Amino acid sequence: MFVGRRAELDEFHRVLTGNKPRLVRLYGRRRVGKTELLTRLLQAHPGLYLNVDEAEYEVQRRTLASQVASQAGHEARFYADWDGFLDDLEMTNTRLVVIDEFQNLIRTGHGLLGRLQARWDSKWKSAGPSLVLSGSSVGMMQRLTQAPRAPLFGRITDNMHLRPLAYHEARDLYPGLPEEERVRRYATFGGTPFYHDLSIDRSLDDALWEALLRPNAPLLNEPEDLLRSEFQDASRPNSILREIGLGAHALHDLESRVGVQHGGLSQHLVFLEHDMDLVLHEEPVLGKKRLGHYVLPDPILSVLLPDDIRAAQCN
């Protein structure tokens, strides 16, 4: 069920109804609802929707050729190189191209970003389709533009970071439930739409069994899965989240329990808070900022990270 995202859809409508093509980056952590948002976007602004698998680049090119052909109504073309792919998009005369899971092309694209940069600069920025590049690897999507030598540095026209649903949006997932029960569901599953998919049309007890308690439950390894999508070595961020979940809320306690010197967690904490929405630094209404503390805003992670549920399943 799709709910909320009115502000994001309004922003998409604003940028896509202008006179010039736009190059939009949409990013956010896994399962936060990017694909559902893009599906709704394409209902209002028809265009091509391309989903990129994690595969070798030759396989990706064949898959993309098939997707373009099926939506444009022509036979699939062979792409000898990435210029062939961009030529095919151009020949469809579509005004909007959405590429979902774009980070998979970054990993294996073999020159795609350079060719896309050249095509955008030479033609598409003034007379081409608008592009929406969506990805679940937050860090990889950010690196597209972080430095002057980054492939799309200075070219992204609009930047959208999709965050978990607020309560006033998520409550609409449960139209038949009293408000108290809606609050209980949000306090249990937070603002990640996929988690609520496991709760809709079930009692809360059944939802918890389905999501967390049964053998091979889909959310049991959620913390590790989220971190593996961002870090080659997830030991440090996993330690940070785990120790916060175990009660290390003050920075000095957290640094001590992770085993680093003062300031040694700064880079990871900034990324986990501002980019992945996995950590929240709460500051006192009155008092000094340094008296603030770190918490896990996602209730599912706050349950899973101390390993209580997973340990219980092993016993």
Automatic annotation (TrEMBL):
InterPro entries in UniProt: ATPase_dom, P-loop_NTPase
Q: Which Pfam families match?
A: ATPase_2
Positions the record marks as coiled coil are none
Note the Gene3D superfamilies from the entry: P-loop containing nucleotide triphosphate hydrolases
Boundaries of each ATPase domain copy? Answer: 2-191
Q: A single Gene Ontology molecular function, please?
A: ATP binding
Record's PANTHER family? ATPASE (PTHR34704)
The protein's name is ATPase domain protein, prokaryote domain protein
Q: Tell me what organism the protein belongs to.
A: mine drainage metagenome
